[in-house]
Design brief:
The structure holds two protein chains of two kinds. By secondary structure, chain A is an all-alpha fold. Chain A is built from four helices and no strands. In chain B, helix 7 crosses helix 13. Classes of the chains: A mainly alpha, B alpha/beta.
Chain lengths: 85, 418
């Protein structure tokens, strides 16, 4: 993993999978309301994120994934944890 | 149909995504010119397969017909069905979204469903584990999803399901859709078939039962129904969708009526998993029922679009069945297998062949059976060999038979003069 997480990478990935413009992918954007992502879309996005960042989202955290910010926060946590290691 | 409650069923739209074109005029031109859609398989490496040819859909980009996210999250067979349905509905002039949701239904039939997507995710499962299986696998693989997707995108809220009967699926589907209109459950039905199974496992499975042609060095000559040198069918893919509509409704709104569906027969062989009844007994009963429902005599039929898959036993059994039903008239009517040109669309076969039959009536021209160079002595009817010819048709029928012993026949009639 590189030293710094790049938000625009997540924007591009989510935009591709959710069929939206990358600029619409912002931290405060709700998956369901703003990005029209249903549960299938969300599972697919998380799968892609897990692949790309070599992380694994615990099942119990899935319910808490309401917006892009939640996903980004998880990635930041994982990133700093790995940096410490 | 004409023997039941008086409701008549018109065809007012057709849409095509096929190995021989994606619009009516291209499809028709290739049918009458006998331009084969068969070629070497490009979708996967066929090194292990004894058959290396198929009739693939080429130059199809799903995003020309739907948004990018839809294209990415539905199976290839659903992409075909949605594109063809949009074209068919556009031609019909109907706007389902402006109608009562109960008035327009959808039956997209398929023999198999999302085989490519099943195989891809099976590979992912084995190589990377279950957590990497796509959450879209279920909607991509289930065979009914074509009907669901078309309803969602075209806002057609009437009866909605799929009919599965292997290679007779869309003939049954069109017949059942016509019945739905006749019994008053919908004013119009978007009905037809789709298939996208040119995949390593599906082709491999057909290779294993020696059902598919191995004429790899001559792809365009590989599908040769009724010819002595035929050696199996050639797998095709694609979708053809029709708009069926209450005849009076279509006439009142001034729609162009392409033809009328006047009869539908269905039967079972009760014989074998994959082999047809050797005398074509089930096929004959299907044709008889369809003629009876149409209220016509065999002598009134001018053309049969045969199932004619180019297998050794199938073509002989169908020939026997036609002779059994039509007697002396069998040698007078024209029979052709357009599969020789477009390949075998499996679940889409009944629909593309119904469309070919409709166009034959509409254009006054019989599409030929190509590659018929050395007629099999056991196949001794007029198969319109190699060259199209003019014919004024009042009634024509389309036969479709499926593994499992499912038979379906549609009787199609020239529309009333306006």
């Amino acid at each position: 993993m590189s030293d710094k997480l790049d938000f625009s990478e997540l924007q591009r990935l989510a935009a591709e999978l959710l069929g939206v413009d990358p600029d619409d992918v912002q931290r405060n954007k709700s998956f369901a309301k703003d990005l029209a992502a249903d549960s299938l879309d969300l599972v697919e996005l998380i799968n892609a994120v897990e692949d790309k960042y070599d992380v694994e989202l615990p099942e119990e955290r899935l319910d808490g994934m309401k917006n892009i910010g939640d996903l980004w926060a998880f990635l930041e946590e994982e990133h700093s944890r790995k940096q410490e290691v | 149909m004409s023997t039941s409650n008086g409701v008549r069923v018109a065809v007012t739209g057709m849409g095509f995504v096929t190995p021989i074109g994606h619009d009516t005029e291209t499809v028709w031109s290739n049918l009458v010119e006998g331009v084969s859609g068969v070629g070497p398989i490009t979708r996967f490496d066929t090194e292990q397969h004894s058959t290396k040819i198929a009739a693939e859909v080429r130059k199809f980009d799903a995003v020309d017909y739907m948004d990018r996210k839809t294209a990415r999250t539905i199976g290839r067979f659903c992409q075909f069905a949605l594109a063809a349905s949009k074209m068919a509905v556009e031609q019909s002039g109907l706007v389902p979204a402006d109608m009562n949701p109960d008035d327009v239904g959808v039956i997209v039939s398929t023999a198999i469903g999302g085989m490519e997507e099943i195989e891809r995710n099976q590979t992912i499962l084995l190589e990377r584990g279950v957590r990497r299986v796509s959450p879209f696998t279920v909607p991509m693989m289930i065979p009914d999803m074509g009907s669901g997707i078309v309803a969602m995108h075209l806002k057609a809220g009437g009866p909605n399901y799929s009919v599965v009967s292997a290679c007779a699926s869309s003939a049954h589907g069109i017949g059942e859709a016509a019945e739905i209109i006749k019994r008053g459950d919908a004013i119009a039905m978007i009905a037809g078939g789709t298939e996208a199974t040119i995949t390593p496992l599906t082709l491999g499975a057909f290779c294993q039962i020696k059902a598919v042609s191995e004429r790899n060095d001559d792809p365009e000559g590989a599908c040769r129904p009724f010819d002595l040198e035929r050696d199996g069918f050639v797998m095709g893919e694609g979708a053809v969708m029709l708009v069926l509509e209450d005849y009076d409704h279509a006439r009142k709104r001034g729609a162009r009526i392409l033809s009328e569906i006047v009869g539908y027969g269905a039967s079972a062989d009760m014989y074998h998993y994959v082999a047809p009844h050797p005398e074509g007994a089930g096929a004959a009963r299907s044709m008889r029922k369809a003629l009876k429902r149409a209220g016509i005599e065999p002598e009134q039929v001018g053309y049969i679009n045969a199932h004619g898959t180019s297998t050794k036993v199938g073509d002989i059994a169908e020939t026997k069945a036609i002779k059994e039903v039509f007697g002396e008239h069998a040698s007078k009517l024209a029979v052709s297998s357009t599969k020789s040109v477009h390949g075998h669309l499996l679940g889409g076969a009944g629909a593309i062949e119904a469309a070919a039959t409709i166009l034959a009536i509409d254009r006054g021209m019989l599409p030929p059976t190509i590659n018929l160079e050395h007629p099999d002595p056991e196949c001794d009817l007029d198969y319109v060999p190699n060259k199209a010819r003019k014919a004024e048709l009042e009634y024509a029928i389309s036969n479709s038979f499926g593994f499992g012993g499912h038979n379906a026949t549609l009787v199609i009639r020239r529309p009333d003069p306006n």
